[in-house]
Specification:
This protein has helices spanning 20-31, 72-85, 130-139, 152-164, and strands at 7-15, 37-42, 45-48, 59-68, 103-109, 114-115, 120-121, 173-177. By secondary structure, it is α+β, with helices and mostly antiparallel strands.
Amino acid sequence: MRAGKTTQAFIGFGSNLGNGRQLVLSAWNQLAVEETVLLRKLSSLYVTEAVGMASRSLFTNGVGMVETEFGPSELLHLLLQVETEHGRLRDVHASGYQDRFLDLDLLYFGDTVCSLPELILPHPHIASRLFVLAPLVEIAPWFQDPLTGQTVEILYQQLLSQIQQGKVPAQGISRIERVG
């Protein structure tokens, strides 16, 4: 990496078509090819039920922490490129979420808060998804959400409490492999 200013970013990885483990690890390693992205830590991989969509296929999920000289839009562009190279096809006519070989979400980009047509930061669904919070807590429980000021550990505990109280539907999740 060059000697420029870097920002810590967190990326969500998901796959529910093909070999999810292989696709997630391949995408993680492909990010390292870019000299402006430094891989810091990848969570364990988790198998999860679909959330927010109907699907018969389970997901493989994880979260990675990187440092980058890119801006948020540049990093998003790289993530979309990696998705495409791993077989992601987007049906612009379909409504809602779709099954996919690879889904990469920019969750946090430092303390950046933005709302653009192509990018919302922090990712708007972090606090409602165990498949994001469980791996995120594993690698960076101390990280503070720039909107709420709460750590991701607190967000995770709040979601677990909401699920236990029946305020939020249960979300099946189990760790399948330690990676980083």
